[in-house]
Design a protein that fits this description.
heterodimer; A: 290 residues; mainly alpha; ABC transporter involved in vitamin B12 uptake, BtuC; 12 helices; 2 strands; 2% strand; globular; B: 326 residues; 73% helix; 0% strand
Chain lengths: 290, 326
């Protein structure tokens, strides 16, 4: 294999990994905060994708504005869901949380199918994103490169917010030890609503950005649920950099396997995840006991 | 009546426990045109019953139970396809052994974890088997599965095929009865009581010196074997096996069936499977999207307000209006 194809495989995998990161990072933080098993996270990504695609098609919003709209719309909707549906089950058993969020998946899938239709939606990328960029060694799709840059910037921004701001410190404290944080006067409930909205909004952006790579149709939530969960489980709960590296790892691995073992290459990802979680139930980058 | 006698009496077979089986036989005569559907319901009951053992009694939350259903279905499918082994009863036994072995092997390692990691591991195990079935196309038929399987006669006497609905129904009913009696005996034994203990208070069970892990693994293995039998019945009754027997949708489906009926109470699987399958039969074909929406909303409502399923709701009503008898 020559250097060029190696680089292009790496870049393609990283672009897919960035999408996985943007969608999954919120899930990691909210699961880490409340221990809430949120299987409906993918459905928020789907909603966002639809909001972005439809607002571009019907209102003629430019792509960046549509992304912002998707973020705000889904963040708002998710807060409503969080207050009405999630909040009563914070102390409930895992099973009830699983049921609630599976039900939410079904309901949202059906709502989208009824409202928009079962067909696959495509994102009309603006001209400046759809061409190729000369990287010196090779030409590569501009959009993938933009995804990689955007994902990295987002990771750094989140990391900064997480490590250097007061709210970030509170979130970290609550993830590590919720009861202790509460007794120190941190309002974990409000913190959770906030991070939930942020995480769902990011998932929405990820759904829109990733529609090019992952596709966008009503079956999206169930098709990619396992992937998002694997990223979170491998990255460790509530670890932003962990989720970032896990997402890139899985994105690249998946990209390579799809090329060399087009039939059932994902077998290896499942097998690796299985082995990893057995050895380290807290994930590759997670802290022990969190 | 004093407490020990009351406790002992609780586990004896009650007269009303014969009713479901009489009803099932009545259906056999009353609805001769719906026996194929009836067989599907019976298979679902058995599958949900197997899940009840791990979820309802041992308290292990799994999203990957279809792995064992699929293992059973593929076992009889591959035996019939490649070895021409289509004797149905030994097929069920083989399916139970294979699924049980997978349950034992995966249970030994998976059950060391709990919470999210356990949920993910059960999911991954199932996805792994699904991909394996997809990849091993020479053996499993890959994406297309194995259509057009045929099976021999039961005891060499009763024709058993997609065309023989009557013997199929009775065969499934008899299998379910045997499995149900086994599960019933198990959950009312001291073993079953210790499972309930593990579900209710893990820490205390460790503290009193119960072999928690071993008990969980045994329950997981037995449950896997039963799910394998259900999968084998499914394959034999339909005459095909495909990847859908192993998917997340099937796992989620059986979870929904059990939850709607009420888990940890033996008959929840019956109520849930009948209610779910009937509704699905009536609605899903005609209005698939509305069915999905209704299912989603129902699940949300159940999770928020009726955590013990349909039977649990009746229990609550009875407690409220029926005096003190529990």
């Amino acid at each position: 294999m020559d250097l060029n194809s190696l680089i292009s495989i790496l870049l393609g995998g990283m672009a897919a990994g960035m999408v996985l990161f943007i969608v999954s990072v919120g899930l990691s933080v909210t699961m880490g905060l409340m221990g809430f098993v949120n299987l409906a996270h993918g459905a928020f990504a789907m909603l966002g994708g639809y909001a972005i695609v439809l607002s571009m098609r019907h209102w003629g919003l430019p792509f960046p504005a549509a992304l912002a709209f998707g973020f705000v719309a889904v963040a708002t909707v998710s807060v409503v869901f969080e207050r009405l549906l999630y909040a009563p089950l914070y102390r409930a058993r895992e099973l009830d949380q699983v049921l609630l969020t599976i039900g939410l998946n079904f309901a949202l899938i059906a709502a989208v199918t009824l409202g928009v239709g079962p067909e696959t939606q495509t994102v009309q990328l603006p001209g400046w994103l759809s061409g190729q960029t000369d990287l010196g060694l090779l030409q590569y799709r501009t959009y993938s490169l933009v995804l990689i840059v955007a994902g990295t910037v987002l990771m750094l921004a989140l990391l900064f917010g997480f490590e250097r701001t007061r709210i970030g410190a509170r979130i970290r404290a609550a993830v590590d030890n919720r009861r202790m944080a509460q007794s120190m006067g941190v309002d974990v409930g409000r913190l959770f609503t906030l991070t939930f909205a942020l995480g769902s909004g990011l998932a929405a952006v990820g759904g829109g950005l990733g529609a090019e790579i992952l596709g966008l149709d009503p079956q999206y939530p169930f098709r990619y649920l396992v992937y998002f969960l694997i990223v979170v489980a491998v990255g460790g709960l509530g670890r932003i950099s962990g989720v970032f590296f896990a997402a890139i790892l899985i994105g690249v691995l998946d990209f390579v396997l799809k090329i060399y073992f087009p039939k059932g290459g994902t077998l290896f990802i499942y097998a690796l995840t299985l082995i990893l979680l057995l050895a380290r139930p807290q994930g590759l980058f997670g802290k022990k006991g969190s | 009546m004093n407490a020990p006698m009351e406790l002992a009496r609780r586990h004896r077979l009650q007269w009303w426990e014969a009713l479901p089986w009489i009803a099932a036989l009545a259906c056999f005569f009353a609805f001769p045109n719906y026996l194929a559907f009836g067989t599907q319901v019976l298979v679902t009951i058995l599958f949900a019953l197997s899940l009840d053992l791990v979820l309802g009694y041992a308290g292990i939350v799994t999203l990957g139970h279809a792995a064992f259903f699929g293992a059973g279905a593929y076992t009889v499918g591959m035996m019939a396809m490649h070895w021409g082994w289509n004797e149905p009863l030994s097929g069920l036994l083989a399916a139970a052994l294979v699924a049980g072995a997978i349950g034992l092997a995966s249970g030994l390692v998976l059950l060391r974890t709990q919470g999210l990691a356990l949920l993910m591991l059960t999911l991954c195990t199932m996805a792994l088997l699904e991909q394996a079935a997809n990849m091993g196309a020479e053996w499993t038929g890959g994406f297309d599965g194995m259509p057009g399987l045929s099976f021999g006669k039961i005891f060499g006497l009763f024709g058993f095929d997609v065309l023989y609905y009557k013997s199929q129904y009775l065969y499934a009913l008899a299998t379910l009865l045997i499995c149900f009696l086994a599960v019933r005996t198990l959950v009312y034994s001291s073993f079953g009581q210790s499972l309930t203990g593990i579900r209710e208070n893990l820490l205390r069970m460790h503290a009193v010196g119960a072999p928690v892990r071993a008990r969980q693994v045994i329950a997981y293995t037995i449950s896997a074997a039963l799910a394998g039998v259900a999968g084998a019945l499914f394959a034999q009754a339909n005459g095909y096996v495909n990847l859908a027997v192993l998917g997340l949708e099937r796992s989620a489906g059986v979870l929904i069936v059990l939850i709607l009926g009420g888990y940890g109470r033996l008959y929840g699987a019956f109520v849930g499977a009948i209610a779910y399958m009937l509704l699905e039969h009536l609605l899903a074909k005609a209005y698939p999207t509305a069915w999905q929406l209704g299912l989603g909303v129902t699940l949300i409502v159940v999770a928020l307000f009726a955590r013990n399923g349909v039977i649990g709701m009746f229990d609550a009503l009875r407690r409220r209006f029926g005096g003190t008898r529990t």
